[in-house]
Amino acid sequence: MNSEKLIIFDTTLRDGEQCPGASLNIKEKLEIARQLALLKVDVIEAGFPAASPGDFESVKQIAGEVRGASVAGLARALEKDIEANVRALEKAESPRIHIFLSTSKSHRVHMVNKAKEEIIEMGVKAIRFAKKYCDDIEFSPMDATRTEKEFLVDVLTAMIDAGATTLNIPDTVGYTIPGEFSDLIHYLKTNTPGIDKAVISVHCHNDLGLAVANSLAAVQAGARQVECTVNGIGERAGNAAMEEIVMALKTRKDFFGIDTGIDTKHIMACSKLVSSLTGFFVQRNKAVVGKNAFAHESGIHQHGFLKKKDTFEIMDPKDIGGDDSELVMGKHSGRNALQHKCKELGYDLTQEELDTVFNEFKILADEKKEIFDDDILTLIQKQNWSQKNLSTYSLSKVISHFETGGSPEGTVELTSRDGKLHRATANGDGPVDALFNAIDKVTGMACKLTEYQVMSKTHGKDAQGEVTVHVSHDNRKVLGKGAGVNTVEASGYAYVNAINKLLIKSKAGPIEGGEIPGP
Ligand code: KIV
Ligand code: ZN
Q: Which atom of ligand 1 is found nearest the CA of 168?
């Protein structure tokens, strides 16, 4: 069976970037555009060229560089906006001009102060003007879901006649609900003369948490383009999340019978990039890309999952370029999962040992919400089976030096459990990197930093920063935390905290050598 194709129109760089606090510079926008091209989205809406010189420049640069995807720019139904688009999109391989115009009664009266006939006239004029420069023209009747249906048909009919090739139906204020929206798409398909000449698109906002559901309902009713953003970022509660739409269509291909051209293995990387550049953290329980999306805690789920993944998992995290699924240890976890976790940590316990650890684990789990790997290691090591492994360092001094154009240098003094002082100096890409390299010199461990996060814990210029690091060594991963007013120093505490956990985990104990004794 030949399945139909859905066009993925990504508006992360336009509607996504438009939301408060998400603004990106040109370099960052280009980086995201490259990642969107890798993902193989069909259309990248790169910005609103008439909105600002910065927006103009970023659309221009993206149009000049990105290949494989169409590049679109947004325009009001005004000649000056369309001209700005024509100039910005000049070098695009496949340019698209996206013209929008308010159509609902509330917008007609309060936004544009125009009668229905004037709206149609303005839209037609704009499309005819744009058509002189560009074949691919998209038209959006803004606030379509609150526009009178009959008027919407009149507007769309006129725009098709004027040359629009895509008709986008925006749920601008996230007002519609799935059944109603699919009825609307069906109504427009049935009642708009010439609608087969254009692609029907939808653009849903998430004010009621229904953006993805509404978009999918529209696809079922015949829409063949969906506008969406990475991680669902966008005005107010955001736009439909691209990764959710794409994975819903892939996972339920049996139901929709529709393909997207998206290379899903790049989803996770794209989500992380957008989150780190906008500073918008992805909520833990976010579908598809949230930290918990592939994590299981309940004993029953873990038991089933360990027997056969599809008992409790409908997607493979590898399909989105994510890490393996995670068994989270907590009060709901069972003996099977604990045994599995101990094995992962390198301990093959006897039944008797497992019973002891399991009893202590349950007591701890009642007190502590989340049980980390090192909590379990401590429980194992408390049993005296491997007492000699508890070796640690503490950070006694940090000296950090950097100047513009130079190579940052960090010096550390660490005290080991036996009271010895160790000192080392190293360079790095930045002050934190230099510090971590100096710590590695002392411990002799070449650790890999996989994640680094600084959060302000208090307000003001002298705010306390909390640094979280994820560090891996020899296929073992730990999390370290450190806090302080000085972020570089707090980073050092976090890194040493992680190293101590790795050393507790390491059956071999601390690694000797590589250290330069201090004075
Ligand atoms: O939400 C909206 O209506 C828009 C249009 C410009 C398509 O973003
Ligand atoms: Zn929008």
A: 7
Every domain of the chain with CATH number 3.30.160.270 lies at 393-505
**What confidence category does residue 379 fall into, taking pLDDT thresholds of 50, 70 and 90?**
confident
Burial (CB < 10 A; 0-12, 13-18, 19+), residue 72, is buried
- For ligand 1, say whether the CB of 172 is within 6 Å of any of its atoms: yes
Give me the half-sphere count of Cα atoms (radius 13 Å) on the Cβ side of residue 341: 31
Note the pLDDT tens digit of each residue in 128-156: 999 999 999 999 999 999 999 999 999 99
Mean pLDDT over 409-414 rounds to: 96
Superfamily of domain 393-505: Alpha-isopropylmalate synthase LeuA, regulatory domain (3.30.160.270)
Closest ligand 1 atom to the C-alpha of 239?
1
Q: Taking a C-beta distance cutoff of 8 angstroms, is the pair 141, 154 a contact?
A: no
Superfamily, domain 4-278: Aldolase class I (3.20.20.70)
Residue that the structure tokens 């696809």 belong to: 219
Tell whether the model's pLDDT for residue 510 goes beyond 60: no
Q: How far is the CA of 288 from the centre of ligand 2 (A)?
A: 22
Residue 167 bridge partners (DSSP): 139, 200
Three-state DSSP class for 98?
Answer: strand
Distance CA(313)–CA(346), nearest Å, equals 26
Across the range 160-179, mean pLDDT stands at 98
Average pLDDT for the chain: 90
Residue ranges, CATH 3.20.20.70, the chain: 4-278
435-449 pLDDT, tens digit each: 999 999 999 988 999
Query: What DSSP assignment string belongs to 363-403?
Result: HHHHH-S-B-HHHHHHHHHHTTSSGGG---EEEEEEEEE--
Tokens of 144: 């379509």
Ligand 2 centroid – CA 204 distance (Å): 7
